Amino acid sequence: MVNVLDLKNEVSTITMNSVQVDDESLHAVLDVLKSGQLAQGPKVEEFEKAFANYIDTKYAVAVNSGTAALHVGLLAAGIATGDEVITTPFSFIATANCCLFCGAVPVFVDIDDRTFDIAPHLIEEKITPRTKAIIIVDLYGQPCDMDQILAICKKHNLVLIEDACQAHGAEYRGRKVGSFGIGCFSFYPTKNMTTGEGGMITTDNEDIVRKARMIRQHGQIQRYINELLGYNFRMTDIAAALGICQLKKLDVANTKRIKNAKYLSEHISQIEGLIPPYVAPNRKHVFHQYTIKVTEGYQLSRDELRQKLNAKKIESTVYYPTPIHKQPLYRSLGYNDSLPATEAAVKKVLSLPVHPGLVDAELEIIVEALRGT
C-alpha cells in the first residue's frame, strides 16, 4: 500500500480526472490504423451494437460528440423552429444550445437542491401549447426521478431526451439511463468512458434511429442520395475501437468510483459545514463528479477552500459556476429567470477527485486537507 507521508512529499498533483487507457486499447487503435479503414466503418457498427446491448435498447447511433448526440436527437424527434423544450439551467451549456441549433426555445426549470437534477414538481407549470420535449440531465452521474418525469411526458405527449452525457452505467430502479427516452451520451476524455471525442444516441424507436443515421451523414439514406438536411457528425473507426475497449471496463471503473465516493462521504459527513453528495432512493449514482456543498458553517468559503486545495496540489473544480440562464448568450436572448435553487447551488458546489485511478492514500490526503490537517 502507498504510504500517505510518502505521497505528501511528492510533487505530483491529485488530478480531477485520469484517462484509463490500457494496452488492449492501444492495440485496438493501432489495428484500425493498420487496416486503412479510418472513417465510419465496421468498428463503429460494432461499437453501436455493443453499446445498445449494454444500455438495453434496440438501437444506438454513434456520432462525433455528446453535443452532436443531443442535436441529432432533437432533430430526429422533429423538434423545430418555435418549439419549446423544457430543460435544466444547471448543466454544461450544450444541453440548452442544442435547442437553439434547431430553432427551438429552451425553457428552464429549477433544480432539486439535493440531487441537483431538474425538479419534477416544477415542470408542469412551465408547459405551454408550444412545449414539445423535455431534456433531463443526469447531473454528475445521478439519474433523475424517472417515474415522475415519464408520467409528465405521457400526460402531455412530450418527447423525452435524456442527457446522460455524465451517466454511463447509471441506473434508476435497476434500469440504465438512456433507455427511457432518446438517450444521449458523451465520450469526451473526462467522462466515465471515452473515445477521445464522441457521442451516442440510444433508442428503441425505429423512425428515430433511421432519421438519426441520415442526419449524422449529410441526410443520406444511401450513398449520394440526400433526403434531408444533415451534418457531418460521423464517428471514426479509431474512436469506436477505443470505445469498444472502454465499454468492457466501464462497470469495473464505475465500481471503483462508487467505492471512492463512499470513502469520501463517510469522512466528509463528519466535517462541519461540508455536505457530501446526496444519493436519492432507487438510483445507482456513478459519480462522474463527486460534488460537495461548502456551506457557511465551514471554516473557509468555497473559493478559499479551492485555493487551499490547489496549494496542497489537490485539484478541484466548480461545475458549473454560471448557470445557463445567466450566461451572456442567454442574457442577450432576453432570459431573466429567477431560479433560486440553481442560483444558490452554483455558489456552494465543489467537485473533488473521485476517478478510478486514485489510490487509497490519495483519498486520505483529500480528507485530511478538507479537515484542515
Topology:
Layout: H1 4-8, H2 23-35, H3 42-55, E1 59-63, H4 66-76, E2 84-87, H5 94-101, E3 105-108, E4 131-137, H6 146-156, E5 159-163, E6 171-172, E7 175-176, E8 182-186, E9 199-203, H7 206-215, E10 220-222, E11 225-226, H8 237-268, E12 274-275, E13 283-284, E14 290-294, H9 302-311, H10 328-332, H11 340-345, E15 349-352, H12 360-371
Parallel strand pairs: 2-3, 2-4, 4-5, 5-8
Antiparallel strand pairs: 1-9, 6-7, 6-13, 8-9, 10-11, 12-14, 14-15
Describe the structure.
The structure is a single chain. With 373 residues, this protein is α/β, with parallel strands linked by helices. The protein folds into two domains: 4-18 and 250-371, Aspartate Aminotransferase, domain 1 (Alpha-Beta Complex); 23-245, Aspartate Aminotransferase, domain 2 (3-Layer(aba) Sandwich), CATH 3.40.640.10. The chain contains twelve helices and 15 strands. It has helices at residues 4-8, 23-35, 42-55, 66-76, 94-101, 146-156, 206-215, 237-268, 302-311, 328-332, 340-345, 360-371; strands spanning 59-63, 84-87, 105-108, 131-137, 159-163, 171-172, 175-176, 182-186, 199-203, 220-222, 225-226, 274-275, 283-284, 290-294, 349-352. The strands form four sheets. A seven-stranded mixed β-sheet has the order 1-9-8-5-4-2-3, sandwiched between helices. The longest helix is centred in the last third of the chain and has 32 residues, at 237-268. It starts with a helix and ends with a helix.
